[in-house]
Amino acid sequence: MAEVAVFWFRRDLRLEDNTGLIHALKGDFPVLPVFIFDPQILGELPEDDARLNFIHDRLNSLRDRLQNNFGSSIAFYHDEPLDVFKKLNKDFDLKGVYCNRDYEPYATERDGKINDYLKSVDIDFHTFKDQVIFEKDEVVKDDGDPYVVYTPFMKTWKEHFKEVKPLQDGKDDLQGKNFYQNKELPFLSLQDMGFKESDIKVPDYDVSPSLIEDYEKTRNFPAKDATSHLGPHLRFGTVSVREMVRKAKAEKNETFLNELIWREFFMQILWHFPRTTNEAFRKKYDRIPWRNNEDEFEKWKNGKTGYALVDAGMRQLNATGYMHNRVRMLVASFLCKHLLIDWRWGEAYFAEKLLDYELSSNVGNWQWAAGSGVDAAPYFRIFNPMTQIDKFDKDRKYIKEWVPEVDTDDYVPKMVDHKEARERCLDTYKSALS
């Protein structure tokens, strides 16, 4: 049997500036790249899931590069990860497994099982920090407790960043690296796994100097295409977070850098408080008696609330898998506050639809909107869906793009009265939290 070290691609779908891959390639054995399509994850996806398409397309691109440039490939598997490693251990003389760390609850449980198995057969499991600048307990208070407010976390993050060694330039030379020489490794099509092509495509990201320079001025207006679209690329690691921090520092844009730090803030909250995926961070908020009207939830999902900016956002989400962040705050507030529908319902719907779905950020932002999370908006802060138009879509360009019938008799009436819904929300929250 061939002696190999396995590199397990996960949320790091790139060859350059890939910490775990670099370490694997510096080892003594040929590196066998693998990717595992996990049935537990795929089982929750629609058959035309755009994110799975994106992952598959990206893996095919990497596979082509490995075949054409290095005489290697990527082995595709569709099975439980533990069973895949048992199979690999039968097919090869495994000399080590390398991967980059993942911090979500399911991932940490899965990796624990993999580690236990590999340890039992005397194979080393090497994991590395890659998708964040700081992880776990690297940015905490002086007493070791995690930060639960963003601003002090951000300030400490920046202080620590000044003290670490400069970021690598990301241009790791792969030529001559020791990949396992086999172009015929197992391959799976989408159809082999019961999926099909999606009509929705993940857009390329834009971190051009002009976009970063104007980011603070333009990012709040949904009619402008002035956001980076980095979300899916950071989520699946088609770009290195180190490269993005380098760009933010080079362009001296603190607002853009702060958004990258928000991502790490929510990641460390999920790491320290994994219960928050299903429970309110502020436990008393789980006492709120949500109305959870299913008919009203359907109207919200389909962009038929009668509030034009809310409806535009939901229709954009359904059609493209994307929604402008300013509008995300509004639609989330509307669901939780105006309709008194559980934030977990909205979080689950975003999980199904968003191309840039990230568990930690999604949970964090939904709990922020509901008032139940860390550093959350106070429960009495309720966005007015009409005045938000005046602030962020004054010319109604965004609304007219997604709700063309807005000024006609065909547009649905408002499903709730803003003033009455606001008072109902305040009474409900106040009673539950007192």
UniProtKB/TrEMBL annotation:
Domain of life: Bacteria
Cofactor(s) the protein needs: (6R)-5,10-methylene-5,6,7,8-tetrahydrofolate; FAD
Free-text cofactor note: Binds 1 FAD per subunit.
Transmembrane domains' residue ranges: none
Binding site residues for FAD: 215, 256, 259-266
Pfam families tied to this protein: DNA_photolyase (PF00875), FAD_binding_7 (PF03441)
Stored PROSITE patterns: DNA_PHOTOLYASES_1_2 (PS00691), PHR_CRY_ALPHA_BETA (PS51645)
Keyword annotations of the record: Chromophore, FAD, Flavoprotein, Lyase
Example GO biological process: nucleobase-containing compound metabolic process
The keyword Flavoprotein appears for this protein: yes
GO MF annotations, alphabetized: deoxyribodipyrimidine photo-lyase activity; DNA binding; FAD binding
Domain (Photolyase/cryptochrome alpha/beta) ranges: 3-133
Sites annotated Electron transfer via tryptophanyl radical: 290, 343, 366
PANTHER family: CRYPTOCHROME, CRYPTOCHROME CIRCADIAN CLOCK 5 ISOFORM X1
Name by which UniProt lists this protein: Deoxyribodipyrimidine photo-lyase
Organism lineage string: Bacteria, Pseudomonadati, Bacteroidota, Flavobacteriia, Flavobacteriales
